[in-house]
């Protein structure tokens, strides 16, 4: 893996050292961060600032803490000729020396040379005394030719960490009681460089209390640990248990398949997927990046502004009364839907979705183009005169994304500022009071809790638009060194997709026909022309019957199409295991690729290969 190579380099450079310092000054940090975070947030009732206030109130430093004696020691055992098993031999030697091993790392190899790194502590929990270090050095030195250094594991104060905020000085952060050098990682950060740099020189704890995807699942903690360079001498005191920005998140349907709760990411279970063509609101898939903002609809204001517009602020009633209500049936799909299939080839980064990161609703609201043109004065002449290229949506949770102006203003684009979902007031979970619906386009552009709409010559900023979160790379790209991520176009329309909802993997069927059901959908409003089903690895195909959704406008088919097929089991497959597979063809006559391997990409996006379900026939 790319990270492994990068980690090897990190360890090779070492850079351990020690420094003293005093307890950190919260008073100095607080106004700076607070101001920056609030500037990015929205008037009038934006919760982001509240989260930050609450966060800081819990982030006190331990009184009187300062750098003192080391809690651990670092041993670097450089050998001229490495050999298999040396790491465990050295571990045994250390155990005999009666030290606790906190961490043991294999090292960078240059030819036969290697460095073995151990983080150890005395049995009574502290760092090793000079005498003990000398004993350990001597014992390890017996194992192989080379050199062995043993030193106290550095302890840094927050003040020292604060001095490391640039690539030149090294970029350091702290987390709980650890100090980490993240200099080489910032470029590779899946959440983007800008976000991670907010924490440069500081504690990441308050940031990760918002972005709990780092601690809830995935490999962020492991990655962080690989960058540890020492202990923090003045770690923040444990926070109060009530301090959680997620406490006000809505109650959720237990039938959802939860990948994360803070922020919530949950998929629609396949068992409920085809019960109705419009997915019931409580089981709609959830893809959040932050806590759900709490907002009184009475206080809601939508600011429309930017180049070529005359800025206006509208309340919810303005939207309802001053514009015609429009309804659009649209399926939303997360760009990472079916990522788990790519993870089986090689781990990507992101939520390991099955195929349930998509759902369908009838959305009610107003056309964005009517608000932009008739209320904010964004005429086609102004678009040309001011070179407007994008419309940016800023969510009250801190999300930001944009769509091209062509889609925003197209009379056939059907982009909505939606306040209803399946005939009900939009639930807070799904963006109340108002969210954007951009039919045919990857879910992340459908910004929830939208507070500002900005006409712009530039795309939105941030990880979800310009950063790497929704960018597709070649299967050969395993690390981002030397790649200008911003130059790669961000995802918009999605490719044709289909999946088998029943039978489920592992089913046993007894009849002479396999009854297969599923859904198909394509981005850009491209209707589904055909779905093919095969049980013999694509040698022969049965054309499925298209059912719900088949009558949508051929080039404005924003919602999924259900299908079903009855596939006879040939004699040679009776009593055997085989795979049911499907592929769809859309209005552009594009079809799904056969294999996942050529689709593999670092972020695990756009997985739309033939969907395969292994089952068994029982005679
Ligand atoms: C310093 C060590 C950090 C490490 C090792 C790290 C690692 C990661 C990883 C592995 C992911 C992908 C998560 C996934 O979707 O599975 C991620 C995403 C992300 N990170 Fe970090 N991160 C760090 C710091 C930060 C900080 C300080 C912030 C905020 C200020 C931040 C904000 C984000 C955001 C916004 C995402 C995208 C989440 C989403 O799309 O839902 N990260 N990070």
Description:
Strands 1, 2, 3, 4 and 5 form a five-stranded antiparallel sheet that branches. The protein has a five-stranded mixed sheet with strand order 6-10-9-8-7. A five-stranded mixed sheet has the order 15-14-23-18-19. It is built from 16 helices and 32 strands. It has 619 residues and is of the alpha+beta class. Among the domains are: 73-143, Alpha-Beta Plaits (2-Layer Sandwich); 155-232, Roll (Flavocytochrome B2, Chain A, domain 1), CATH 3.10.120.10; 297-328 and 361-487, Oxidoreductase, molybdopterin-binding domain (Sulfite Oxidase, Chain A, domain 2); 496-617, Immunoglobulin-like (Sandwich). Helix content is 20%, strand content 28%. Protoporphyrin IX containing FE binds at residues 173, 182, 189-191, 195-196, 198-199, 204, 207, 211, 213-214, 218-220, 223-224, 289, 349-351, 463, 469.
Annotation field: number of helices: 16
Largest sheet: 5 strands, antiparallel
Structural class: alpha+beta
* CATH homology superfamily name of one domain: Oxidoreductase, molybdopterin-binding domain
Strand content: 25-35%
CATH architecture of one domain: Alpha-Beta Complex
Gyration radius, rounded: 28 Å
Enzyme class: oxidoreductase
Main location: mitochondrion
Subunit structure: Homodimer.
Pathway: Energy metabolism; sulfur metabolism; Sulfur metabolism
